[in-house]
Design goal:
The complex is a heterodimer.
Chain A lengths: L4 E12 L2 E12 L3 E5 L6 H9 L6 E6 L2 E2 L5 H6 L2 E3 L12 H8 L8 H6 L2 H21 L14 H14 L4 E5 L7 H16 L4 E5 L3 H7 L2 E6 L2 E6 L1 H6 L1 H8 L4
Chain B lengths: L2 H20 L3 H26 L7 H18 L4 H25 L4 H20 L14 E2 L2 E2 L3 H24 L1 H11 L1 H6 L4 H27 L9 H14 L5 H17 L6 H15 L4 H13 L2
Antiparallel strand pairs in B: 1-2
Helix pairs in contact in B: 1-6, 2-6, 2-9, 2-10, 2-11, 3-4, 3-5, 3-9, 4-5, 4-9, 6-7, 10-11
The chains are: A alpha/beta, B mainly alpha.
Chain lengths: 257, 311
């Protein structure tokens, strides 16, 4: 049974000073699914994303990825074993071109040493050519090929979000974490994004964990939804059951007096 | 490497070859040699500051280690000069590793503080325990390669600037490789670089080692050219000078290291005519540079050129 679970969040707690950001959060993301994590602002969603990717450490609890605990791994090692992510506050390399941004995402697969790079050995040249070809393919895939030579900072938000996804694809992940990929996107862009996310699951066999506020998008693409409120899991299920869940409705709309 | 860099390298090489032929003044050759030695340090520091985003306030220490170790090994232990230089580079990169591992594992500018302290320690060690103490020592063997001893200013001019060209080619290759892209990425966003699977600490340590090797190579060149060393050439003041070269040349482009080294080396010589006002003018010119050319000379020139082309 466990073999069908890509990542298992086990009793994760985290507080900042006196504020409990996460309290005993547990859930599992099944392999090959699009799993959404929703909840009102301040529910602890981004904190959990940061704990999974290793940018923050949990006070207690465990993260099990492919049956192995990964709590002690630094962020770069987690990416190496197959966890890639995007950021809510866009973390692109602004002064680099769109193509270069994707190329950096591939560095972990093709690291060339200092001395080899400095001497520009043939092997280094060949690897570099490979990386460029593969990066261009990825840009094609997300529909950013026409922007390849522009500086990342000059792209509109919608395309910057796509570029973040492209860079994450470059790491060839098993699990991709998307932190509010639709924030700042217009209706057309959101629609394209939902198609892209579904393609990541179906064509690239990537398991996805998505934090998002756009309910239409979430209800349309998710297989499973986990709802967080004030750092606690209050509901989990398929989109239909979540929409009907009274606790969820209360969390979003407030209680009736 | 882009076309611009290859063209620049060709022009640089041509200027190096022609300079001693056209200009016969030995005094100018000497200034040229010192500019080249400084350029070696500045190129390494540019990569460290501009690409790894770290500041070193102790580059003169590595410069000093290179000079002293290579001088002592060749003078007192009779090792061939080339071997002494190699061992000096080894010693200085070991020192860099010991310094960088604790300092770079922490976020923030701990390296700047660590190198500042390290610079002072090395300066004091040279002062107290170096051969000749504060007054220094001489008779350091001249550079010797495959049985050929470098004696004339011309010899050293070509030797030093050949080193600059080789180091420059190596550095440009590095900057244009995936390693260079990873470095640039780190400057853009540390957390994104980390989550792209890149070990930041390892990368920063490597760059720091590289910059220390360049600096100690420069130091060794200095020792075997001047054949006399004293601790006063390796003080905090010199670390600051190296920093100035990088800032004035422009940290975002490694050509800035060469240009900055030329300016900082030549400027005091030009200002010598102003007698007691020279320090004042020197300070004034540097201040003006920092006020009005913050990006540095090379990046600003490139920007202006691009704007002019697109007009």
């Amino acid at each position: 049974m466990d073999s069908q679970i890509t990542i298992k969040i086990k009793n994760i707690s985290k507080s900042f000073g006196g504020l409990k950001a996460l309290e005993n959060v547990s859930f599992s993301v099944k392999t090959g699914q699009i799993h959404a994590l929703i909840g009102p602002n301040g529910a602890g969603k981004t904190t959990l994303m940061n704990i999974i990717s290793g940018l923050e450490t949990a006070d207690s609890g465990e993260i099990i990825f492919n049956d192995k605990p990964i709590n002690k791994l630094p962020p770069e090692k987690r990416t190496k074993i197959g966890i890639a992510r995007t950021f809510q506050n866009l973390e692109l390399f602004g002064e680099m071109t769109v193509l270069e941004n994707v190329m950096v995402g591939m560095y972990l697969k093709y690291e060339t040493g200092f001395i080899k790079s400095g001497l520009m050995l043939n092997s280094v040249r060949k690897v570099q050519k490979d990386i460029i070809t593969k990066s261009l393919n990825i840009l094609d895939y997300v529909g950013l090929n026409h922007r390849k030579n522009e500086y990342a900072k000059n792209l509109p938000v919608g395309e910057q979000r796509l570029l973040e996804i492209a860079r994450a694809i470059a790491a060839d992940p098993i699990l991709m974490l998307l932190d509010e990929p639709a924030a700042g996107l217009n209706i057309r862009e959101t629609k394209n994004l939902s198609i892209l996310i579904k393609n990541l699951k179906e064509e690239k066999q990537i398991t996805l964990l998505i934090v998002e506020h756009d309910m239409e998008l979430i209800m349309g693409i998710s297989d499973t939804i986990t709802v967080l409120n004030f750092g606690k899991v209050i509901a989990e299920g398929d989109p239909l059951s979540i929409q009907k869940n009274p606790d969820v409705i209360t969390a979003y709309l407030g209680e009736e007096d | 490497m882009g076309k611009g860099n290859i063209l620049s390298l060709l022009i640089l090489t041509l200027v190096i070859i022609i300079f001693p032929i056209v200009i016969k003044d030995t005094y100018l050759h000497t200034i040229g040699i010192f500019a080249g030695i400084n350029a070696l340090v500045a190129i390494g520091l540019t990569i460290l500051m501009g690409y790894a985003g770290q500041i070193s306030l102790g580059q003169a220490a590595f410069y000093g280690i290179g000079a002293y170790i290579s001088a002592i090994l060749s003078l007192h232990f009779g090792l061939p000069v080339i071997l002494s230089i190699f061992l000096a580079l080894l010693v200085s990169s070991t020192a860099a590793i010991i310094l960088a591992i604790p300092a770079l594992r922490l976020k923030g500018h701990y390296l700047a503080v660590a190198t500042l302290g390290f610079g002072e320690i090395i300066h004091i060690i040279l002062h107290e325990w170096g051969p000749g103490g504060p007054s220094g020592f001489g008779d350091i063997p001249k550079m010797n390669l495959f049985g050929y001893t470098f004696t004339s200013t011309n010899d050293y001019f070509y030797l030093v600037w050949m080193c600059v060209v080789v180091i420059m080619i190596f550095s440009l290759n590095l900057i244009n490789s995936m390693t260079g892209k990873a470095l640039q990425a780190m400057h853009g966003s540390e957390i994104a670089t980390q989550t792209a699977g890149i070990n930041l600490t390892k990368l920063k340590i490597k760059v720091f080692i590289l910059s220390s090797i360049y600096a100690s190579l420069a130091g060794a060149m200095y020792a075997h050219y001047v054949t006399f060393l004293s601790p006063s050439s390796f003080s905090l003041f010199h670390s600051v000078l190296f920093l100035m070269m990088v800032v004035i040349g422009g940290i975002s482009n490694i050509w800035g290291g060469i240009v900055g080294a030329l300016i900082i080396t030549i400027l005091p010589e030009v200002l010598r005519g102003f007698k007691e006002f020279d320090i004042l003018l020197y300070g004034l010119i540097l201040t003006l540079f920092l006020l009005f050319m913050r990006k540095g000379l090379v990046p600003m020139t490139i920007d202006t050129y691009k704007r002019w082309i697109h007009r």
